[in-house]
Amino acid sequence: MDGVLTKEANPLQVVLNTVVPAGKVRYTFAASEPGTYLYHSGTRPDLQVDMGLFGALIVRPAGFNSMDKSTWTAYSQPATAYDTEFLFLESEIDPKIHRQVKFGWWDQADTSAFFPTYWFLNGRAAPDTMYPAYAVWLPTQPYNYMPMMEPGQKLLMRWSTQAGTCTPSTSTATTPR
Predict the structure, then answer these.
(1) Is the bond leading into 139 cis (omega within 30 degrees of zero)?
(2) Residue-range domain boundaries for the chain
(3) Cα dist from 102 to 109, 113, 146, 162, whole Å
(4) What is the mean pLDDT of residues 2-27?
């Protein structure tokens, strides 16, 4: 969502830690168009995004009803109708930066030397990407990376990436939409 303005707390207050601890900072976003959006930290994104402060946001078209498949369109147009959808969120981390933050060395975390060595799909690294969605042993990673569909079904793939480097992933389908 780079370039999309939000109404938020004064960034200077956040940087100077003058927001009351355990207080609240409210961010708002007016969703004027349906689609898949990526949100991330606006305070220090070079560091906080690597630490996991980002996510995907799906904005449904007007009239969407999760209980009525006849309303399942990506953009309120019949050509974007689908039978099933999957969200794929790619990310990556540099463990050196994570170690520096873990030990409280925020000021030494050099994000200009960012060198990721771990890549994630929906918060999971292989082989966890192959386990079923909502696997009880992965409570903080509910979504898998194994879309399943029947022949003839239309699949909506919502693909979003927070990865800044080339990630090792691909999609293979006869007619992906």
Answers:
(1) no
(2) 11-161
(3) 11, 18, 32, 21
(4) 51
